[in-house]
Amino acid sequence: MKKNTYLNNVSLPGPKDLEKLAKKALSLSKHESLWRPLTDVQTPGTLVDFTSPDSNSACSDVIVIPDLHGRTSFLKRILSFRIPEGDGEGLTIEEALSKNKIHLVFLGDALHTEFCTKERWLLAKDLFEQGNYVSDPMKQEMAEGLTVYITLLDLLCKYPDNFFFLRGNHENINNKNEDGMFSFKKYAYEGEMTRRFMEQQYGEHLKNLLADFEDALPLVYANNRCVISHAEPISPFDKDSMIHGHFLASVMNGLTWTNNDSAAENAVELSMAALLGHNRAVWISGHRPVCDGYHFQRKGLFLQIHDPRATKVLFVSKGRDINIETDFWDVVPPTEPMFS
After folding, report:
1. How far is residue 270's CA from residue 236's CA, in Å, rounded to a whole number?
2. Residue closest to 188 by CA, chosen among 129, 258, 110, 109
């Protein structure tokens, strides 16, 4: 196994490395596979489907990575964390990936730090408004975000059968307001500041290459134990809609942008039934922050796991139901602080 080294030195990735991995990842995302049903125009759809009992990989332990938002230390800890049970027991998560012992599913949102970087965003915003699109605070921000991004690209290229990168609402490097995606701003003009930075630092070609990669990403991962998407489905979606999300703005928006408590009451239940034929699984999402690490909703059918202060990943065993008390693993020892 050739270990990823980008996380050892958090800095702006070199354009050649970024372009090489983005091209390969884009090619893989567009390549036909057994687990991505084709659309009507014969392109891989937005559903990663491991629900078939005939698939060799249908029964795999799954580890779910919540929204990262530039958290390089968290991602480094994830990859080096030793798995306490299941087929990958005793291996680090990256070793288990390399040995085909697990599926690793990333919920989306690689870029745009949050929680403890508000002041840096505000400083970068002031300089942005003065016409400085590649200021020092913005370089610091993008070094963290792009280190996470290139690491995920590297994982996808190395382990395309086991690592799955789902699209979140922050996978929008062109900051577009169309096709179910919206421009983003929270502390500053994060989406537009990122777009302008990429254009000046890396050029239009590389920025658009990453945009093409984002547009090819899946929206949903499903097996018979869990269904995973960045956000809670806003309304009930049938399987065909989840396959054709690239072409349906309502599906793209409805699986990446859903606010807390805004989804239809039966959306998870009916969408899960459409995929699995039953409601004995759990739908897992991130997107909107929750307190205390996780939040069960919809009578236990929906589990939200994005807590920007937490450093936990979710284990979904292939052989039993989720036990949140034992399956929500903290990858950072409690005695070791993650945030300053």
Report:
1. 6
2. 129
